[in-house]
Amino acid sequence: MTRISPWVVWTGAAAAGAAGGAEARTAANVPAEITFTAQREHADPFNAITLDVVFTAADGGRRCVPAFWAGGGAWKVRYAAPQTGTYRWRSICSDASDPGLHGVEGTLEIGPYTGTNPLYQHGPVGVAADRRHFEHADGTPFFWLGDTWWMGLCHRLRWPQDVQTLAADRVAKGFNVIQIVAGLYPDMHPFDPRGANEAGFPWEAEYARIRPEYFDAADIRLQYLVDQGLTPCIVGAWGYFLPWMGVAKLQAHWRYLIARYAAWPVIWCTAGEANLPWYLASNFPCDDREAVHGWTEVLRYVRATDPFRRPLTIHPTAINRYTARNATDDATLLDFDMLQTPHGQREAVPITVQAVRESVAAAPVLPVINGEAAYEMLGDRLPTEWTRAMFWLCLMNGAKGHTYGANGIWQVNRRNQPHGPSPTASSPPTGYGVISWDDAMNLPGSHHMAYGKRFFEALPWVDLQALPDGAAWADTTPSETPGDGAWYRDNPLFAPQACGLDDRLRAIYVLAPWPIVVRALRPHATYRVTHFDPVSGERTPAGPARTDAAGEARFAAPTHGHDWVLQLEVE
């Protein structure tokens, strides 16, 4: 038996075209890889040949899994299953005359998994039955804390040292999802040298055919993330590639991604900013509905092609409605709603709150994740406080996880070698800023995300409900407060944001260091009170508190002078 990584295991190739060749072994949920070798010449195997492998379980259940061209005459299939036992498989090739690819048979033996990686111990991440949150295959709840590495497969994030350093930092802080693009990147021209990896580009010129060498190098990085317990959220391409490549080529791109990665514990995002045209288009920026129509067809193709049915979404722009529902003609194709809200400060607050509330209330019911919001230090100036606020505003209003973004990481700025300008006509030479990825890794916002995740995981977070009327400013504040008070006084979406379990448990996020009143509690009841500092992660008991006859109680702000969180539990 040959072991090529901590988790991809196989016993041999499909023996030089001999039917009945290979026996493979792996553990539950751990992908196995089986290689096939063509016995006939194929001038253009990627475009001319399709290969599928049907896996049959002992109970008769069947899965038809796409195989991928691995270069030359080699093809590979990857398979994983949660149940132990013996699986039979048989290959089906579009060229039935090639005995190396068609009609090859074998078995796959799946034993128990005995390790500690949660993606194998509990299974890949999927959508829970309530359609509100994520959970592992065995039902273990999964609190999504994502990090944004859009260009993390390019050579500017070096393997192994940079990838391993950044991954270790994120694991230590509790991140568990990495949003990463499969080579067809934002903010650069196609075939821009900045976007290549160690093996070059993902496609040949004119998109003639895919380049397996690129994905061999990408495998090493993605495999490492999974080995660390990090779920890749793989973005197939940035939206503006659709008019250049066309629907058929992007479907072929997605078939290749599914064949290589669907057996892995991944999440799919069909396209990034799917409804935004190319940066130099005459109508940029706009809500490009023609692109939406095309990406809907790709979404439909991914749903029909993926035999493992990994969670699927699409990433919208912060134009118009901010929601994945606006980036497709058919929201029933989505497994969860990925939002993008503005990269702003105070002005982004009401937009973000309203976008989350509308998504949570919309049909069909979907888990809500803000996949892009107020990147820390965007333009080398967006303050941490607003990156932090977006996490809390989204979670308080019904999101069941959040994705953080740090400028410098998403585009992989290197020290003294930043990514540079966007293609937009107005982009400065420094682009979105020059902070390097390794400095951005240590920005305080990533610590604040970790503290926020720990706060919610200490509560029954799956069952928390948004309570828009659960808290308000105390009577004299902030209407009598000069300066910033006008922001909070004039828009109710700046009010303290509350969630909880009816009148038993309440969590309140407060943007400003001012007193509040908490409502809809039990009358004449005693509550245990805890102050949580979202900057330091410290919890400070401050109770008990007694409600009045109306079920209300007033609370002074802590003295630290910034946003704060209050937790109440009935005694």
Protein model, in words:
The structure is a single chain. By secondary structure, the chain is of the alpha+beta class. The chain has three domains: 2-114, Immunoglobulin-like (Sandwich); 140-463, Glycosidases (TIM Barrel, Alpha-Beta Barrel), CATH 3.20.20; 467-570, Immunoglobulin-like (Sandwich), CATH 2.60.40. Helices cover 22% and strands 23% of the residues. It is built from eleven helices and 31 strands. The strands form eight sheets. Strands 22, 24, 25, 27, 28, 29 and 31 form a seven-stranded antiparallel β-sheet that branches. Strands 18-17-16-15-14-21 form a six-stranded parallel β-sheet. Helix 5 (241-261) runs parallel beside helix 6, helix 7 (348-361) runs parallel beside helix 8 (384-396) and helix 8 runs parallel beside helix 10. The chain is globular. Residues 1-21 have low confidence and may be disordered.
